[in-house]
Specification:
The chain contains ten helices and nine strands. By secondary structure, it is an alpha/beta fold. The strands form two sheets. Strands 1-4-3-2-5-6 form a six-stranded parallel β-sheet, sandwiched between helices. A three-stranded antiparallel β-sheet has the order 7-8-9, covered by helices on one side. Helix 7 packs across helix 8 and helix 9 runs antiparallel to helix 10. Bound molecules: adenosine monophosphate.
């Protein structure tokens, strides 16, 4: 696996690969890699010849400085992980490499998506996400990019970025990988105690409950029951739980036939913020 630390070095390498007509897939990550990231790499391998994984803990998408500070950065382990996964290229830039001192202001109009759910609870988060993803797109000019369904609102935001900037990249949505209890794998799970990890399985159980009862129970009752189930756990603080239209991520009060729906949830457990979602149709 080749490792590049600067945009210039990566660009030089990619120019050569493009001359050889090699297709390129990009998997952007913030590191602390787990099997969820690994599955993104497998999807990428199915779609392109050269796989680039980027690891960059992007400061502009953190609205909470202590969250940024305590974000895990086990870089030696990540490098081994990627080598074992037969990744071709790791892009591992520093903050100053991605954000030079003369960095221009960044803003894209994400419309209502920016005001709801993650947008509401993490102000500025999606501007930071689009800022770094656009930089990575400009640099790598990938044919394919793989993102996880786990961050479904992020996917909607990237779809919008691709449309606004008229980018020629194919976005692949990869399913969420879970542990045996159903907890979605996340770099943040490291901060959970064993009891919290066990309690966290209630997130998946609640989403499953909503999915299974969607056609037989009114939306408001389903939401109430799922909330009650989750909050009966010690230390469980639900930030939001919503049943939404899949296209707009706007909350619905009734299920609309012929439209797709998704349940979204964010909870705090042990001072750790966890998000999850499930397609309902
Ligand atoms: P992160 O490193 O957390 O920024 O995530 C990098 C990419 O991995 C994003 O596209 C995430 O949606 C995806 N991802 C994170 N957790 C999982 C998971 N459990 N299963 C599948 N993909 C995931």
């Amino acid at each position: 696996m080749e490792i590049f630390y600067t945009q210039a070095d990566l660009q030089k390498r990619l120019e050569y690969l493009r001359l050889k007509k090699q297709s390129i897939a990009l998997v952007p990550t913030m590191g602390a890699l787990h099997k969820g990231h690994l599955s993104l790499l497998s999807y990428a391998k199915e779609k392109a010849v050269v796989i680039i994984c980027s690891i960059f803990v992007n400061p502009t998408q953190f609205n909470d400085p202590s969250d940024l500070e305590k974000y895990p950065r086990p870089i030696a382990k990540d490098i081994k992980f990627l080598k074992d996964a037969e990744c071709d290229i790791l892009f591992l830039p520093s903050v100053t490499e991605m954000y030079p001192a003369d960095e221009p202001e960044w803003h894209v109009d994400l419309g209502p998506l920016e005001q709801i759910w993650e947008g509401e609870h993490r102000p500025g988060h999606f501007q930071g996400v689009t800022q770094i993803v656009y930089k990575l797109f400009q640099l790598a000019q990938p044919d394919v990019v793989c993102f996880g369904q786990k961050d479904i609102q992020q996917i909607k935001v990237i779809e919008q970025l691709i449309e606004i900037k008229k980018l020629r990249v194919r976005l692949i949505i990869c399913p969420t990988l879970r542990d045996s209890g159903g907890l979605a794998l996340s770099s943040r799970n490291k901060h959970l105690s064993n009891t919290a990890k066990l309690n966290a399985t209630k997130i998946y159980e609640s989403l499953r409950y909503i999915k299974e009862h969607l056609r037989s129970t009114p939306v408001s009752q389903l939401k109430k029951e799922a909330l009650k189930f989750m909050t009966s756990q010690e230390g469980f603080d639900v930030e939001y739980l919503a049943i939404c239209d899949y296209e707009t991520l706007q909350e619905v009060s009734v299920i609309i036939p012929d439209r797709k729906h998704v349940a979204l949830v964010a909870v705090w457990l042990d001072d750790v913020r966890l998000i999850d979602n499930m397609f309902l149709d």
